[in-house]
Amino acid sequence: MSLEQTFDRVLSRHDELSAVLDGSGPAPDAQVFVRISKELAELAPVVAGIRALRQLKGEMDEALQLKDDPAVDAEMRSLAEEEYYSLKERLPGVEREVQILLLPKDEADDKNAILEVRAGTGGDEAALFAAQLFRMYERYAALQGWRFEALEFNDTGLGGCKEAVAAISGRSVFARLKFESGVHRVQRVPVTEAQGRIHTSAATVAVLPEAEEVDIVLEDKDLRIDVFRSQGSGGQSVNTTDSAVRIVHLPTNIVVQCQDEKSQHKNKAKAMKILRARIYERERQQKDAERAANRKSQVGSGDRSERIRTYNFPQGRVTDHRINLTLYKIDRVMEGEALNEVVEALISADQAERLAELE
Q1: Which residues does residue 228 pair with via DSSP β-bridges, in sequence order?
Q2: How many Å apart are CA 55 and CA 47, to the nearest integer?
Q3: DSSP 56-67
């Protein structure tokens, strides 16, 4: 199917859906109304892009006719020529924008996300780095106007953490954070290093789309729920009641544990939220693997076994190895301010790769 045929199909579908909702025919039931309204909302920017592209091409044709018409005076032909080349210069950018809008959309892009950060190799230094990464994402979320809710923070008592989990909600959260999944490596001199030697440590990051109850239905028979006394620091009563909750999803053997809250009910609710996200992500990865078994690039693969980024403090640089991007502004990245430059570059690289696959 040619690009123009694709355009026609999209416009036709938009008109068809609009006709259903314009009141001229029988009113659809509530469920159908919601589905059609959602599809129309998704098509709206695509339709606007197609119309803008076709208008641009139409203006180019008009300018070209004037430029080549001997009956038109020289000054008018000169103006038409100038306009034609100006429009021609804009054409590739507009075409690319429309092609990006036509790319198959990840159904999870509009979802909120569950962020999981864990200390990897490197002992106390890895735990300190994991806590830093967690704070980096918290600051980034604040700059994006998102809500950041810590669900679990298993601290080491030295300013670091073994594991931290947060729920992040807002517009396009998963779409912007999904490429953060992977191994993050840090190179720096630990405060405990007397010889001034640079150490290498690592932390793993997982970004999961938050699943709603309609996405993942958890049946009681598939769950084993244990309650126990919380360990570690907390409020005065944290260790005196069985408030901590551990949930095992028997079909997948996925285990989730929450103990940050003093309330058993709150810990269970948080654990269920994390469990749904992990099961949903597991299903997504299985589907992605089936659809893209031959895809070589790591961008967007969510492969957590690969090192994706290095934070080199002595050199003040952050390097994302998937797209060979290096920024010499590590302080601003760790504050969340410059992280957006990395996020935007990863999104652009993924779009470029998917466009190339369609050609």
Answers
A1: 244
A2: 12
A3: HHHHHHHHHHHH
The highest-confidence range among 32-36, 162-166, 257-261, by mean pLDDT, is: 162-166
**pLDDT tens per residue, range 96-132:** 888 888 887 777 888 899 999 999 988 889 999 999 9
Which of 221, 203, 37 lies closest to 126, judged by CA?
203
pTM of the model: 0.70
Using DSSP bridges, classify how beta strands 161-169 and 113-119 pair: parallel, antiparallel or unpaired.
antiparallel
Distance CA 302, CA 300 (A): 6
Which residue type occupies 85? Y
* 13 half-sphere exposure, CB direction, 13 A CA radius: 16
Q: Which amino acid would we find at residue 149?
A: E
Confidence of residue 305 (pLDDT cuts 50, 70, 90): very low
State residue 81 phi and psi, 5-degree precision: -65, -45
DSSP state of 159: S
Residue tagged 């797209």 (tokens):
323
Task: Write out the two tokens for 130.
Answer: 């994991």
What is the secondary structure of 253-294 as a DSSP string?
Answer: TEEEEE-SSS-HHHHHHHHHHHHHHHHHHHHHHHHHHHH-TT
| Residue 217: predicted pLDDT | 78
The structure tokens listed for 335 are 């504050």
Query: How far apart, in whole angstroms, are the C-alpha atoms of residue 308 and residue 219?
Result: 36
Round to whole Å and give the CA distance between 40 and 35: 9
Count CB neighbours of 307 within 10 A. 13
What digits encode the pLDDT tens for the residues 165-215? 999 999 989 999 999 999 999 999 887 666 778 889 999 999 998 887 666
Which is it for the CA torsion 133, 129, 117, 348, positive or negative?
A: positive
